[in-house]
Specification:
31% helix; alpha+beta; single chain; 6 strands; 6-stranded mixed sheet
Length: 127
């Protein structure tokens, strides 16, 4: 199995949403300050609760990628992003944690590339 940790919640439609963290993404998360970890945990709960219905500014698509999305802690005010792909009806695979694009363009591109590599085996749900 590719993933080290999973978490699930109940979406607004009553179905369960689940997040699957790739082990390297967990290591990236662990390097962040505690306040950022809490903000990411709160954003993850929102994703699990609302599933694919989670609106902007809490998430958005990553331009130039094959279905990669960014979870935006603190409604986009965090300096960090969680890069994920929807891989099932209410199943989300998390591939990387990295800086927001305006904070570190190079770091953002690196995190996007790593997430794409780590999630290569998963097609976006619905393809």
């Amino acid at each position: 199995m590719l993933y080290l940790a999973a978490s699930q919640g109940k979406t607004q439609w009553g179905t369960m949403a689940e997040t699957l963290w790739q082990k390297e993404a967990i290591a990236e998360l662990e390097m962040l300050p505690m306040g950022e970890k809490r903000a990411i945990a709160d954003a993850e709960v929102k994703l699990e609760t609302m599933g694919s219905g989670l609106p902007f500014p809490h998430q958005s698509s990553v331009r130039g990628t094959d279905g990669l999305r960014e979870l935006r802690p603190r409604a986009g005010r965090s300096r960090w992003r969680v890069f994920y792909r929807r891989v099932g009806p209410e199943l989300f695979a998390i591939g990387a944690v990295g800086p927001e694009a305006s904070v570190s363009p190079k770091g953002f591109r690196r995190s996007v590339r790593l997430a794409e590599e780590r999630l290569r085996g998963f097609k976006e749900y619905g393809e």
